[in-house]
Structures are given as structure tokens and as C-alpha cells.
Amino acid sequence: MTANVADNALFLEVLAGYDGYDGRQQDLKVHKYTQSLGRDVRGMKIGVLREGFDGLRAEKDAQDCVRTAAARFKRLGATVEEVSIPMHLHGVAIWAGVISDGMWQTFKQTGLGGNARSIYSPAQFKFMEHWLEDFPRCTPNAQLLMLLGKYLERFNGRYYYKAKNLVFKLRAAYDATLAKYDLLLMPTASYKAYKMPKSIKGLGPTEVFKYALVGVETCCQFDVTGHPAMSVPCGLRDGLPVGVMLVGKHFDEPSIYRAAHAFEQSGDWKDM
Fold this sequence. Notes:
Number of helices: 9
Low-confidence stretches: none
Strand order of the largest sheet: 2-1-3-5-4
Shape: globular
Order of helices and strands: HEHEHHHHEHHEEH
């Protein structure tokens, strides 16, 4: 999203806070994020999440690159220890249950949920009025998730409700570890960057799925639990970038910026 950590902190500082329109914005805690820049990581505790290194396309050199990044944090003065949160591995299924059914139902309501304490936009309603006709123009990952949501309609919300309830358990699992650590560390993806095909024409269903959704398996858990996270480049392997992800407590973006900026300033990531 930004070329460096400082720009990202400034970007969030401008954007964060209640906008006066969205009633879902409750109990927000906003910080001067740029004030977290330029601080070292001495005294911070970072948990390296064991389950975060699992993945459908896990590559050893990419995983080793992230572990090297963890070792760099240790050299910079942080306490770095391996931790385990087994429920992290169930997070993809929980996320899928929420996003697929939820996305389909939201689109059916032309993008506007009912009974919310929010400002409703007639322009948005008008724009979304014929969304189903535009379905073929959606990206493959959006199409897959909405088709799954359509299929799940036959269960009358059963799996959506179950997934929503499990979000509380997943959130609590991360919170229990974050009560002892400032941050969690894991790969942004357990593999190096790869080239996306220009078109899905000629690809089988398995290949389409691989390119459309495999990238979410490490990150999507935090989309439903609400924990802030940031990906920072941490090295090149075979000339391809690898990212390390830092995850913090709710509304504790300052700890992420503090650690991410210290890591960024410790050397050129392309040479790590």
C-alpha cells in the first residue's frame, strides 16, 4: 500500500477515526501513529507463530527468510520466542464461512445491510441495483466466494452463524497469546511471490482456486478477528520478494509501527 513504513503510519493517521457515516465504527481508539517511528524494539516480546508457517504452497526458502527476519528482531533487542495457537489452522474455514455467505447476502441487499445506525446512500443503491448482471465481470476470487455463498443459502445461514460464533473463540485464542507478547510474527505467505496468469482461460478449477484464493490462507484469520497486521518485505529468494507479517493487539497499531520501522531501518531488505 505504501513504499515504506513511515508513509504507512502517516496514511493511517489521516484515515483513522470515526467518519460520521458508518454506525459500525464503535469504541475506536486512534493514535498518532507517526510517533511510533524511530524507536527501537528493546523490551518488546515477539511470538513467532508456529502454525503461521504451514500452507498449501509452503516453500522452505521463503520460510527460512521469515525466520531470519525473526532472528534480526532478536539481534535488535527484542525477546523472540516460538508460540503455538492451534486454532489458527481453522481460521481459513471460519473466515470462509463468514465471508462467503455474508458477501452473497450483502450483495443481495445491494451492498447495504439493514437496520444499521448508518447513513444510507441512494447513489450506492442505484449503482448496485443491477449487480447480478455484472457478476461475470467480477474477479475469479469474488465469483468463487459468492457462488459458495449462493450454495450455502440452502442451509439457511447455519454455517454462517456457526462461523460467526467461532470467531469469538478464534479471537480469544490470539488474545490469550497476545496477553504475553506484544506482537505475533509469521510469514505473510509461506511462499515467494509468483507470477499471476493474464487470464484464467484454459485453467482447470484447481488452478483457478490456487491463483484466486491460496494467498489468503495466512492472513484471512485477522480479517474476521479484527487484529491489526502489517506485511513488511524481509528479503529476496530467487529474485522474488518474501514478506514477514506482524500482528498486534486490537488498536495497538503503534507497536506494529514501532517494530516494523525498526526492522526496516536495520538494513536494505533486498540484501537480507
